[in-house]
Amino acid sequence: MAKVFVTRKLPGGALDRIRQAGYGLEVWEGFCSPDRDTMLAKVAGVSGLITLLEDRIDAEVMDAAGPSLKVIAQYAVGVDNIDLQAARARGIRVTNTPGVLTDATADLAFALLAATARRVVEGHDYVRNGEWRCWHPELLLGPELHGATVLVVGFGRIGQAFAKRARGFDMTVLYTSRRERPEAKALGARRISLEEGLARADFVSLHVPLTPETHHLIDEAAFRRMKPGALLINTARGKVVKTQALVEALKAGHLGGAGLDVTDPEPLPPDHRLLHFPNVIVTPHVGSAGRATRVRMAEMVVDDLLAVLSGNEPENPVI
Ligand code: DGY
User: ∠ at Cα 35 (32, 38), nearest 5°?
Assistant: First the structure.
């Protein structure tokens, strides 16, 4: 019987369909990724794998699975944890979950922007710590959302959904993209170079995948170009930002604050320097964590896994 290994329990009932389709199913019950040795042992002889963004799926894992491995279905849109070249060389299909998590991720990016600008977490801590004694005209002032200029770095599905939310708050929207995007017109967004956009924006929100080109895209030079007091929002991948440069920009007071759903390293240790800044909000990589979104993502990975295993074309092929 062909076997499938899933590296975590997934919400909803989608995984049941793997067993119903006649495959052997093993689901890792741990909260975090199996350790390396366990992963290598668990994948031996499987035909299909369902993976998460923290599972490092490289040539060693593929070879440990052996020639039976036909498909790696990634429960995420980002696939930077999978060695695509190694998969291609072995004729293994890789699929992901684009589209379905666009709105949930854009919602969280906007929530981080609003919370960082209007100092929501600082306000909550102020109340919780018993510091709220009276109303004061200068208490917890922050930049206005309406009327601000936002730079959307990367204008794919999530970048566009974020732009739509920014327009709803009467912001001027600038975006970077390798090419002019026809969708921008309806969103009232204008294409600009990264350099110029960084210099003009009050808020910068990152929506690019992690690739060799985007690794440390936001480094010391990028922070220097940003307007004093600007805010950085990252719901893309932690390594798009050079953490050391981010810390320095915050320390110097040049950066007004940051809202981060992704960090480098990830998970961020509780004693990390980033967590010492009151104007930094960090959430634990939960951009797509809408209940319905996560159930739908499970349906998508199972659909594509079963499609490949039964000799059909998956709906969301990466390769
Ligand atoms: C993704 O899909 O890449 C997100 O980071 C997790 O849902």
Answer: 120
- Looking at residue 144, its pLDDT comes to 98
208: left (phi over 0), alpha (psi -120 to 50) or beta: beta
Closest C-alpha to 240, from 272, 271, 220, 263: 263
Number of other residues whose CB lies within 10 A of the CB of residue 33: 18
Q: Is the peptide bond before 265 cis (omega within 30 degrees of 0)?
A: yes
Beta strands 93-95 and 149-153 are: unpaired
Is the distance from the beta carbon of residue 210 to the nearest atom of ligand 1 less than 6 Å?
A: no
Check: CB of residue 234 under 8 Å from CB of residue 282: no
**Above pLDDT 90, what percent of the chain?**
100
Name every residue whose Cβ is closer than 8 Å to that of residue 115 and which is 6 or more positions away in sequence: 121, 259, 281
How many angstroms does the Cα of residue 40 sit away from the middle of ligand 1? 24
Ligand 1 proximity of 77 Cβ (cutoff 6 Å): yes
Query: Cα separation of 80 and 108, whole Å?
Result: 21
Tokens 């990152």 correspond to 206
- CA-nearest residue for atom 3, ligand 1, is 78
Question: Is residue 200 within a helix (H) or strand (E), and if so which, with residue range?
Answer: helix 194-200
- Omega prior to 67 cis, within 30 of 0: no
Determine the pLDDT at residue 284. Answer: 98
pLDDT single digits (tens) 241-275: 999 999 999 999 999 999 999 999 999 999 999 99
* Catalytic sites, residue numbers: 237, 266, 285
Q: Is the CB of 174 under 6 A from ligand 1?
A: no
